[in-house]
Amino acid sequence: MARPDLNLLVTLDVLLAEGSVARAARRLRLSPSAMSRALARLRAATGDPLLVRAGRALVPTPRAVELRDRVGHLVQEAEAVLRPVGRVALDRLARTFTMRSSEGLVETFGPALIARVEREAPGVRLRFVVKPDKDAGPLREGTVDLETGVVGKTTGPELRAQGLFRDRFIGVVRSGHPLSRGRVTPARYAAGKHVAVSRRGLEGGPVDDALRDLGLERNIITIVGGFATAVALARASDLIATVPERHTGMLRVGMHDFPLPVSTPDITVSMMWHPRQDADPAHRWFRELVREICRSNLLESPR
């Protein structure tokens, strides 16, 4: 059996990304006829038409959709293998790293991260942007270098991820709140006025499932999109916020927190990046720095 022409992987990657023979030809600096011949070879190699006519446009077949991420990953890995990797001169590095994180994580870990960057690579600037959703588009497009959060079903399958720390949910109230005194039972906790956190406006979560098993239900007064907002509302009212302990530490200064009276699973906060950044020495330095800062901060601030 003849060995497949691996150069066709690059052609397939570009064709699936562009969805157009003409645009793919321009991107690869080929003539339209040469690109058409390459598409014919790809169809013969895969046994699938890959791109089919729909009106004036071409649309991918189910097989093409299935191959898109796999092919892109293979091409990026091959490029990384053939790209020379050297040590980065941090004292001469001039670059902006954009990091998408929750406000709480930035407040907790940001000062130490900024200080380390300023000391090791004074020409580097950090840009923190809010994380309104789990859309992997900014990482794919390169507008975001690194993202932190919980890896879930909606996380892009091609993204790289590395765990930073484990966290648990706790309750937090203003100083002097009734729940700051005495034992917090499931009934007392559920009966209070709650601010729930959900980007999609949903009321339920693991804590509600645990309470439901006891025949209890939280009295949810309002729903917000982030933990920082929930803590701010709890600080200024009688609302109870349920938030991750570790990366809301700075947000909760001066408030009363308590372990939840029901059992809920811990979460793992990870950093995520696009595989195109794997072999970049500067990006690897930045990832390692974020990991070290999160680890050292947690060692200095035990539960």
Task: Give structural attributes.
303 residues, single chain, elongated, 21% strand, D-Maltodextrin-Binding Protein, domain 2, 3 domains, alpha/beta, 10 helices, five-stranded mixed sheet, 40% helix, Arc Repressor Mutant, subunit A
Largest sheet: 5 strands, mixed
CATH class of the largest domain: Alpha Beta
CATH superfamily of the largest domain: Periplasmic binding protein-like II
What structural class results from the helix and strand content? alpha/beta
What would you note in describing this structure?
This protein is of the alpha/beta class and 303 residues long. It folds into 3 domains: 7-82, Winged helix-like DNA-binding domain superfamily/Winged helix DNA-binding domain (Arc Repressor Mutant, subunit A), CATH 1.10.10.10; 90-167 and 268-300, D-Maltodextrin-Binding Protein, domain 2 (3-Layer(aba) Sandwich), CATH 3.40.190.10; 169-265, 3-Layer(aba) Sandwich (D-Maltodextrin-Binding Protein, domain 2), CATH 3.40.190.10. It contains 10 helices and 12 strands. It has helices at 7-18, 21-28, 32-46, 62-82, 103-120, 137-141, 186-191, 206-213, 227-235, 281-300, and strands at 51-54, 57-60, 95-100, 124-129, 146-149, 160-167, 169-173, 193-197, 219-224, 240-244, 256-259, 267-273. It has a 5-stranded mixed β-sheet, covered by helices on one side. A 5-stranded mixed β-sheet has the order 9-8-10-7-11. A two-stranded antiparallel sheet has the order 1-2. Helix 2 packs across helix 3 (32-46). The longest helix is centred in the N-terminal third of the chain and has 21 residues, at 62-82. 27% of the residues are buried. The mean pLDDT is 89.
